[in-house]
Amino acid sequence: MKLSILLVSGLLLHAVPASALELQGVTLPETATASGKSLTLNGAGLRLATIFNAKVYVGALYLEKRSADPVAILASSESKRVELHFLRDVGADKIQETWKDNFKAGCAKDCDTEAKNLASFIGWLSEDVKKGDVHAFDFGKDRVTLTIKGTEKGSIASTAFARIVLGSWLGSNPPNKSLKEGMLGAQ
Q1: Which of 14, 163, 8 lies closest to 75, judged by CA?
Q2: pLDDT in tens, 76-103
Q3: β-pair type (54-63, 80-86)
């Protein structure tokens, strides 16, 4: 009898799909699709801002193969996705200002060329963000595509620009250390 119960319990455990991760009330699925590829949740973290540690968004990183190595992830040509699930309202002016600061912090070369791409990118961020909005950044071999609330805003074909955008979370100067660690699966 005990063996039957154990066997049935074991079968039920294998029949249950992988559970989603929940962080700050945001449920993140185990998989996502970007550039036609199935991606796996690598990790998620919380973006905190100001000296008051205001909770801004939950950031999730999806990869083809899980990795805790930010340098390898940034160098990889595999598909990736970053989703930002906003926990509060944020004005468009603040979002645009933050991306300009991220660009300055992350651009090492060809900054004049990539500044033109930044201007296009910033233009897509012209609406205020509301609590519950989702921004998705899909990274292909040589591009980044921005989708806001399920609507594709545009795509920039530039490996360098895509790395600057992804580097804003995984580079040497992330918004906060715990966000980067969470996206790398450390939490």
Answers
A1: 163
A2: 999 999 999 999 999 999 999 999 999 9
A3: antiparallel
